[in-house]
Amino acid sequence: MKKMTCVIPYEEYESFDELSAQDRQLMEEAIAATETSYAPYSNFNVGAALRLRSGRIVRGSNQENAAYPSGLCAERTALFYAHSAWPQDPVEALAVVASVDGTVTPTFTYPCGACRQVLVETEQRAQAPLRILVGSAQKVLVFEGISSLLPFVFDNLPEKH
Ligand code: THU
Question: Cα separation of 80 and 85, whole Å?
Fold first, then answer.
């Protein structure tokens, strides 16, 4: 037996001002997306914004339902919408953030496990690392590629259909 270690590189930005103009725009789009969230059960309004290779920005927000598991996270709403509308345009970056009662949360909103799994396949289709921006009211964390957030990934099906 060998003890193994997994190192996860990421960047921490002190504020939105420290971000590049492109990243800042994506975070601001994600904040704007929280306004279309439908979250009467959790009151947790999540917004996601992704940038396609063409430069197009696509927003998504969490959509809940009284049958709780029928709802969908902001990230997957944006990812599935983008691929259904622009299937040939790969996803380059995604930003996620949440607000409660109209105020961006002071804590980070990380993509959930299911969204990470979908991000894996999105990145594989793009054949390039997908930049993930995790927002809060102040700081922003940036992960270059989904393997930083999901290092041990299920992707060994014998054949993809
Ligand atoms: N949620 C997201 O939209 N994205 C995440 O990454 C985490 C959780 C939503 C799902 C649900 O509508 C609410 O946040 C509370 O879990």
Answer: 9
Interval 66-118: pLDDT, tens: 999 999 999 999 999 999 999 999 999 999 999 999 999 999 999 999 999 99
The architecture of the domain spanning 17-148 is 3-Layer(aba) Sandwich (3.40)
Find the DSSP H helices in 7-73.
21-33
User: Is 161 a residue whose pLDDT tops 80?
Assistant: no
| Mutation choice for ligand 1 from 35, 37, 42, 118, CB with most ligand atoms inside 8 A | 42
Look-up: residue for tokens 């009151």? 43
The percent of residues in the chain predicted with pLDDT above 70, rounded, is 99
From the list 148, 152, 153, 150, the residue with the least C-alpha distance to 8 is 148
* Residue 108: exposure state from Cβ atoms within 10 A (0-12, 13-18, ≥19): middle
Nearest C-alpha to atom 4 of ligand 1 is from which residue?
73
